[in-house]
Structure prediction request, 442 residues.
Amino acid sequence: MLGCLDNVFPRRALFQRDRRLLHLFLGRVLGSTGFSIVIPFLSLYLHGERGVPMSLVGGIFFFAALAGAVGQVVGGELTDRLGRKAVIVGSQLVRSAAFVGFGVAVLVHAPIFWFSLITALSALAGRAFEPPSGAMVADIATGPARAEYYAILRIGGNLGWAIGPAIGGFLAALSYPTLFLIAAGVLLAAGLFMAFKVEETLPHRVARSLEVQEATTLLPSSTGTAPLARFGFEELGQALRDATFVRYCVISLVLFTVMSQLISTLSVYAVQWAGISKLELGALYTLNGLMVVFLQFPVVRILTPYRMTTALVAGSILYALGYAMMGFAHGMPVLAVSMFVVTMGEIVTTPASMNLVANFSTVQLRGRYMGVYGLFNSFGWSIGPLIGGVMLDLASGRSMLLWTPIGCLALVAAVGYWDLRRRITRTMDLNYEYTTAETATA
Prediction:
């Protein structure tokens, strides 16, 4: 029974190895749960309760995503200056305070400007969490275990997404102030848990035995896992001179724009156009989280022998199909099937996209390449809600007018990845684990 579970969930790595990973995983689950209680329902509140046009709601998320990019830079720099734990705990406490601010703003019927500022503060704190958590994994894991540890953190985030929206749907149906304040309490619990349980791993701050100290000197710089931690214009230029890589980033930006429709655009559409309840909306996002938790590992294993551009093309087509199906949704069943297809696109594309960035770069330049890719990622997630909000306003209840262009953007990404496939070598386009095994058996 447990052996079968190991095929879909990394139980042994989580519970039978380094306890520091378990504590970081649990903290991430709590933090993701608190965040996901709120974020699918924030746009519903602003548009449905306050009458804010969706184009303006999209603008609020656009501003927040830009603040999040700044937060990743600041978080990366502070990670090296203050240590991993201080930034991890601080980011959760700041986001908890921001969510208290949401609750108060709803109670006093604050101007929309305040919601924009609080959303930006929340995004800044949330993105600041990523560099120290990534650097902590680099500190405690070496070799093949590092990739597995990163996958475990991703599962932790999505486990929170499986729990949070279900709670949020129930709370949103009762009271929005309660929704925000309970989410703030969960984030506060996440911060306190990590303050007491997560150990500092910054190498020069940790007093260890000589053997462990020697091991840490063999670890690569954590800037590879926190790509924006020390990021300058000179480093940016080196990666931008790689024309094929820049082409890949631009194609990925199109796909990120499509991916981001899952937040504000879908939540408003599902409740106000497709006619589902807030409880059902929570269940819809729970389906997304649970699928990633239980299907990510099996799908990665299935796709390992194939070229990564194959996965990116297939995933983009799945996104196009899933979003196109939403245009026909007038209730929960079709929306659930659409979410299943869209989430399969997410599961197929996400691991391949990051692995391909690593293959484009040398070990010495990996942090710079990851940093450039991260900038395109942030920009795609910034403009996506803005585009979706404008289209919601322009479509005026015509579902296909909303989702057809979004599906077409995913097809544009698929064509771009197929063109990229012709421009890069097969060796660059294969998973490292597969090429290593292929070489070993040759």
Remarks:
- The domain at 17-225 is CATH 1.20.1250.20 (Growth Hormone; Chain: A;).
- The chain has two domains: 17-225, 232-442.
- Confidence is low (pLDDT under 50) at residues 207-231.
- The CA atoms of residues 322 and 338 lie 5 Å apart.
